[in-house]
Structure formats: C-alpha cells, structure tokens
Amino acid sequence: MAHAQILKESNIDFLGKRRIAAIVSGALMVICLLSILFRGFNFGLDFTGGTVIELGYEQPVEVAAITTTLAEEGIVDATVQYFGSNRDILIRIAPQEGEEASAELSDRVFRLLSATAETGIELRRVEFVGPQVGEELREQGGLAVLFALIGILVYVALRFEWRLAVGAVAALMHDVLFTIGLFSIFYIPFDLTVLAAVLAVIGYSLNDTIVIFDRIRENFRKMRKGTVIEISNRSVNQTLSRTIITSGTTLLVLLALYFLGGAAIAGFSLALIIGVLVGTYSTIYIATAAAVWLGLSRADLMPVEKEGKLVDDRP
C-alpha cells in the first residue's frame, strides 16, 4: 500500500524527454521499415501454405534427429518442434515440388519416421493450407489491422478531441510497426497467432492511452493553473501506479505462457510481450507527446458553453 502511495505522488518529468524519445522512436521505426521492406517476414504455413503433421512418440525423441532424417530424404524445408512434451512432435513442411496432395506427403513422412524410430509413433493430425488461402489470409489480416486503426481514430476523436485521436493512432501505428518489425529483423516465424496478438496489442495499448487521456481531460477542468506540459505530466504520474500494476501482472502471465506454453503459442506470447512493453512507452511518449506537439490546449477539453451554462460534452 505504501509502495502504491509513493507511485501516486511521483513527479517525473516524462514529457521533458519527449524530443529524445521522438529521435529514438524515429530511428527505430526507420530500421523496422527497412527490415520489413527488404528482409520481409518469415511467414508461417498459415500464410504460405503447406502441411502440418502432429506425431506422438511412445518415448522422448530428439528434434535434431527427426530433422536430419527428413533432410536425408529430400524434405529440407521442414520445421520440427516440440508440441508440449518431448514426445509430442509438430512438423511444418512448406509446399514440396512433385507432391500432389498433403495426404501423400504425410504418409511418406509417417512411413519414413516409423521405419527409423526405435519406438512406436502415432499419427495424430494432418492439416493442409493451400498457397491461395495463405495469400488471402495475409490480405485479410492487413485489412483487419487497417480497419481497427481507422475505427479507433473515429472513436477517440468523438470521445475526446481530434489532437488526442491523432496521438492515439500514431501510438498504435508505432506499436504495430515496432512489434512486426522485430519479427522481421530477427526473422521470427509470423503466423496467424502472431497476427491475433498484434490485434490484441492494439486493444491493450488503446486502453492504456484512454486512461491517461481521461485523466488529462479531468485535470484540465480541475486545475486552473499550469501549462499543458505540466498538466500532462501530472496526469501521467497520477496513472503511473495503475500502469505499472496492470502491465506488470500482464507481463507475468505472458512470460509464463512464453516459457511454459510450448512452441505452439510462443510467437503469440512474444508478440504480446513486445506489445505490452512498447505500448506502455508509446502511451506517454507518442500519444500524449503528439497531442502536445499538435497544440492541445485547455480550451479544447473544457465543457461546451451553451446558452450561458456549461455543458459537459463527455459521452
């Protein structure tokens, strides 16, 4: 309880560092953009098409041994990983030349691994995604992100003020670009679970931004003295305790999912971890700072005066 009280009474000059933050963020965004444009993404089979085979071994097995066996038979683009325990194996294989159907490829892989395994193997699941379906998923995923940003721009503009709306969308674009940029730079597999995490990051970051914007509007109406920078700083400091507690507990869950949840949700967890960290940063140094740079003033957030009375315009 005492710790929370100290955080509430903090007086950190966050926006005083906004120019330094802008330079750092700008440089990182350029690096991410260049990586996305020239390096691209390591798209998973959800987007590129291919075959997914899930196998169950009676005894623990080494991933390297399976990869070597497949490579010796000409299946060089296979990704082999544990799917839970070290007896559960998930194999992802890109489209192979000369293979007419996923059933033929899965039967070939199963026979090959059964012949070289020391114990029994169970074929649990086979899934196939065609290249055309993968291309459609990429397009629809990009549109989903775009429409989410447009909807948020309209929502924040109606609820608060257009300068705050622009700041919120700038922060969300920053978060999305930084998250997917890291996946491009380090060439981490990018599949549908990662795309779902990116959309979740948009919602999480927006929630944090709305909390601070609400406090800024409230303080503009309560504090008759103070500059825009001083009031914005005061608002960020007042919500700092809530931000640390929320982000901290969320990160604890995500770290547990990343380290203990297995390879199937590793990309999803990693994208959310990056998103929570960068989203907390961008709420202060992108969303709030952008609104200040655009000329946010007390008059923009004061209640509307109508026929001699003050009317609160909050929805």
Short summary:
The chain has 315 residues and is α+β, with helices and mostly antiparallel strands. The chain is built from twelve helices and eight strands. Helix content is 65%, strand content 13%.
What does this structure look like?
- There is one protein chain.
- By secondary structure, the protein is an alpha+beta fold.
- Helices cover 65% and strands 13% of the residues.
- The protein has helices at residues 2-8, 18-38, 45-48, 63-72, 102-116, 131-159, 162-185, 192-222, 228-238, 240-260, 266-293, 298-301; strands spanning 42-43, 50-57, 78-83, 85-93, 121-129, 189-190, 304-306, 309-311.
- Strands 3-4-2-5 form a 4-stranded antiparallel β-sheet.
- α7 runs antiparallel to α8 and α8 (192-222) packs across α9.
- The longest helix has 31 residues, at 192-222.
- 32% of the residues are buried.
Write the layout of secondary structure elements.
Blueprint: H1 2-8, H2 18-38, E1 42-43, H3 45-48, E2 50-57, H4 63-72, E3 78-83, E4 85-93, H5 102-116, E5 121-129, H6 131-159, H7 162-185, E6 189-190, H8 192-222, H9 228-238, H10 240-260, H11 266-293, H12 298-301, E7 304-306, E8 309-311
